Structures are given as C-alpha cells and as structure tokens.
C-alpha cells in the first residue's frame, strides 16, 4: 500500500506545483485553497509511504514523479518546449524511479 500512497503523493505534487502558477502569488483565493489542499494531501501521503519505504527512496520517487509529471503537463498542456533531448532526460528520471522501486521496498527500522 505504501507504493500506492507514494504514487498518489507524486500525482498530487504535480497538481500543487501546477496550481502555484494559477495562485498568482497566492492572491487568487480558489486556486490558492486548492493548491494548499493538494500540498497537504501530497505531504500526508508521502509521510504515510515513508512508514514502509526508506526516506531516500520515497523522497526521490515522489520528487521524480512530480518532476516528470509537471514537465509532461508543461509540454502537452502549457505549450512548453518539446524536443528529443528533453524527452530523453525525462526518460532517464523515469528509469531512476523504476530502479529505486526495484531495489528497495521496505525501510530498515
């Protein structure tokens, strides 16, 4: 279950990072509230995942999901630059996430 929590924590990270763009420095109420709620939920799920996944692995996977997700949203929805080098770099991040998942699934308590 920890990996499911971590996956959704990463998706919520994408949501709050993109949400920051629309808060306009936290001057817009609705996007600000939604962004803060996504932050809280993301951190809570990350903390739950860290009960069973080593902190280094959990944080790296969480940040990787967020980085890749936000970059993909930027390229596909927000009109950011798309090129082969950028996609190749994202694939390297994905490879790192998969590698971390494969090499460690439980924390050393």
UniProtKB/TrEMBL annotation:
<keyword id="KW-0812">Transmembrane</keyword>
<dbReference type="Pfam" id="PF00893">
    <property type="entry name" value="Multi_Drug_Res"/>
</dbReference>
<feature type="transmembrane region" description="Helical">
    <location>
        <begin position="84"/>
        <end position="103"/>
    </location>
</feature>
<dbReference type="InterPro" id="IPR045324">
    <property type="entry name" value="Small_multidrug_res"/>
</dbReference>
<feature type="transmembrane region" description="Helical">
    <location>
        <begin position="29"/>
        <end position="47"/>
    </location>
</feature>
<keyword id="KW-1003">Cell membrane</keyword>
<protein>
    <recommendedName>
        <fullName>Guanidinium exporter</fullName>
    </recommendedName>
</protein>
<feature type="transmembrane region" description="Helical">
    <location>
        <begin position="59"/>
        <end position="78"/>
    </location>
</feature>
<keyword id="KW-0813">Transport</keyword>
<keyword id="KW-0472">Membrane</keyword>
<keyword id="KW-1133">Transmembrane helix</keyword>
<comment type="similarity">
    <text>Belongs to the drug/metabolite transporter (DMT) superfamily. Small multidrug resistance (SMR) (TC 2.A.7.1) family. Gdx/SugE subfamily.</text>
</comment>
<dbReference type="InterPro" id="IPR000390">
    <property type="entry name" value="Small_drug/metabolite_transptr"/>
</dbReference>
<dbReference type="InterPro" id="IPR037185">
    <property type="entry name" value="EmrE-like"/>
</dbReference>
<dbReference type="GO" id="GO:0005886">
    <property type="term" value="C:plasma membrane"/>
</dbReference>
<dbReference type="GO" id="GO:1990961">
    <property type="term" value="P:xenobiotic detoxification by transmembrane export across the plasma membrane"/>
</dbReference>
<dbReference type="GO" id="GO:0022857">
    <property type="term" value="F:transmembrane transporter activity"/>
</dbReference>
């Amino acid at each position: 279950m920890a990996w499911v929590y971590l996956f959704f924590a990463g998706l919520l990270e994408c949501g709050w990072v993109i949400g920051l763009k629309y808060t306009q420095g936290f001057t817009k109420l609705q996007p600000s509230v939604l962004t803060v709620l996504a932050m809280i939920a993301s951190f809570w799920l990350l903390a739950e995942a860290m009960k069973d996944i080593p902190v280094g692995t959990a944080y790296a996977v969480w940040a990787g999901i967020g980085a890749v997700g936000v970059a993909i949203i930027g390229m596909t929805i927000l009109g950011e630059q798309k090129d082969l080098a950028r996609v190749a770099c994202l694939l390297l991040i994905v490879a790192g996430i998969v590698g971390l998942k494969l090499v460690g699934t439980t924390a050393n308590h």
